[in-house]
Amino acid sequence: MSRTVHCIKLDREEEGLTAQPYPGELGKRIFESVSKAAWQMWLKHQTMLINEYRLTPIEPKDRAFLVAEMEKYFFGEGSAAPKEFVAPS
Fold it and tell me: Residue 74: enclosing H or E segment and its boundaries?
């Protein structure tokens, strides 16, 4: 039986993640209050950030930027796309 959470991003009951997707306290908060669907949305957003800002996730400053954006995406004001970003049609 899958677990459900009240997803903080989608503001409704949804299927929860099966494991903590990120280490530490942030990962625990995500596991407890983010749905699988919202996590998939984040992964797409994160990919866009990596591509648009030309980030290298193994670089500490780039990783710190992504963690800060993840925090904002789920628990803050939201993570915005770069001003120059044009969504694919």
Answer: helix 60-75
